Structures are given as C-alpha cells and as structure tokens.
Amino acid sequence: MTHDDAIHDDGFRLDNGLAGEALTIPSANPRNFHQAISETDTMARQDLWAKLFLPKGAGPFPVVIVAPGSLGLQEHHMSIAAAITDSGVAACTIDPFSTRSVVTTVHNQVQFSFAASAWDVLAAAEALAARPDIDSARIGAQGHSRGGSAVLNAASVHLAAAASAPKLIGVYAAYPWSGQQFLDPSVGSTCVRAIIGDRDDWCPPMQVQAHIHAIGLTGADATMRIVPGANHSFDRTTPLEYIPEASVTPGAPTFYIADDGAFILPASDEPDPELEDRDGFLYSIEAGFGVRGARISGNPDLVTLFYDDMTKFWTDAMAPADT
Question: Which helix (H) or strand (E) holds 149?
C-alpha cells in the first residue's frame, strides 16, 4: 500500500496507533492565481481526498493540515502527522494527486497549478472549520517542498480573501519553492516559519530567504532557519537519493504575482491575467536556468532537529491566547 492509499484505507493507522477519518473535501482547479482571486466562480470544481487524525482526549482540537510535495504522500508525512497528534493537535493529511489522476509532479510541475495546490489548503481549512471537533480559530498548515509553496501562498491575504476559509493561525513551510511570490506578500495575523537546508539543490535557499524577509517587512511574524549540511527533504531518514527526472530551475528569477493574481514575467513589469505556471517555467528554461536532476534526503542525523523546530513552532502558534 502506498501512502496515498492511506488516505482512503480505513485500516491504516499512524505509528502511534491512531486511526483516521477519510474525508472528501470540495476544492477547485484554478488555472492560475488570477482565476482563483478575480474569477473565483469560474474555477473548475475538484474533490480532494484527505484523512483526519484526532489526538486522544476531548475536543475541539486545533489542527494542522499537512500538504505533501511532488512525490505525493510519503512515509515521512505520516510520521509528521503522528508527531503532531502526539502533541495534542489534530493532523489532516491531504492528497492533491489521486483525484486529479496525477502520480508525481517531479518531472512536470504544471499538471495542475500552484494556485490549485494553495486552494486545496484553504478548502481543507474551510471543511475542517465546520466540524464540531475542530477549533476553527486554531487551524494551521504545514507543507513540504511544493506543499511548502502551497501553504505560503494560502497565507496570502489576497488569496485568502477569495476563499471562505478561516484565517490560518500559522504556516510551516518545509524546504518550500519560492519561485512564485506575491508582490505584496502580506499574510495578516498568520505566523510564518520556513526551514530549508543550505545544500538544497531543488529549492534555492536564497529565494526562500528573500520571500520570508519580504513577508516580515509587512509586519508579520515571519522567521526562517537555514540548516547547515541539509539536503532537500531532510526530515526523511532515508539515504541520499538522486532523482534524475527532477525538473528544477535553480537561479531563475522570481515569478511575481499582482494583488489580483495576475503573473508578472521576470523580464516585464506588466501583470498579465492570461499567464500561467507554464509561462514562468518556459521563461526560466529558455533563459538557461532549467536543470534535470536533484537530490533528496540523506541527513538522518538532522531529523531530530527538524522535528524539534516543527514542534516548537506549532506549540507556540497553537497556544491559547490567554496563555
């Protein structure tokens, strides 16, 4: 059984023994951020599979939505969910791929849009907020790689205003791709933290630094940690692995997003509502930044560091206001 299958297998349990509740969440397939923000009613509808794990005890519980990266749900995402529930917080793992008939986006990131990935997070937050066993004022999101991009974009005040989800209390972006950023990166009251290794050859650490710094300049609580010697996906315990089919664009300029969601090509200053993710990637490839192959994992000694950082962030972010 793959871990994508765990989303809809009633027999699956986390390592701590918790069984989950399979959910089908109404989401959407926006072709770009402009459609999601400015033409919201025209988006194609898309169901999303998820599984909710509630900790032991009495609710309502705070909850963290866990969004995977380009390889889909993996063993380490389920370990993340177990660690979150061990701290008394619910975890909702989402599967962005299965209902879209996608297996992986490693070789092709434009099978569905990054706007759709972010919308999935907000759709999950909206569905969870309606449940009596969830504290709607304490819903956060954690994303890994492409999922890290999703949670950072979901925190944007511009995208959030187009959705019916409650404001995210916090987002934890694990080794995110920051190749797309809002020109106005405001996130309001959402706490933001990113963590990435200095050896990451999939998502440029410098671009993440700039992204988190820009969010912080808006007055937000935004911090990041660069981990020496860490590769991409360093929360895994598996050996270093080279993924030859990975399509990456290290060193490419940032693809900015206007307030209405229109993309701005790096060589232009004019927002264009018709531009999509593919246009940004094609620009990067034609400009000579396209590369095949990247490395993941290989840093088992750093897994504890990752979990400690993650747990501290969620403990602080989810603390009741009167504590």
Answer: helix 146-154
Confidence (pTM): 0.95
Residues 139-164: tens digit of each pLDDT: 999 999 999 999 999 999 999 999 99
- CA dist., res. 266 & res. 106, Å (int): 23
- Give the separation between CA 154 and CA 66, rounded to whole angstroms: 13
The 3-state secondary structure of 278-309 reads HHHHHHHHHCCCCEEEEEECCCHHHHHHHHHH
d(CA 301, CA 150): 27
Quick one: tokens of 208?
């993440």
Average pLDDT over residues 203-216: 97
Give the largest Cα separation in the chain, rounded.
55
| pLDDT range class, residue 109, cuts 50, 70, 90 | confident
Tens digit of pLDDT for each residue in 225-236?
A: 999 999 999 999
Pick the closest to residue 81 from 173, 27, 17 (CA basis).
Answer: 17
The answer on pLDDT for 6 being more than 80 is: no
Between CA 16 and CA 12 the distance in angstroms is 11
Distance between CA atoms of 276 and 114, rounded to whole angstroms?
9
What is the C-alpha separation between 3 and 313, in angstroms, rounded? 25
Omega into 176 within 30° of 0, i.e. cis? no
Tens-place pLDDT, residues 226-270: 999 999 999 999 999 999 999 899 889 999 999 999 999 999 999
All residues at 6 or more sequence positions from 323 whose CB lies less than 8 Å from its CB, including other chains: none
Residues 165, 122 contacting (CB under 8 angstroms): yes
CA distance 298 to 58: 39
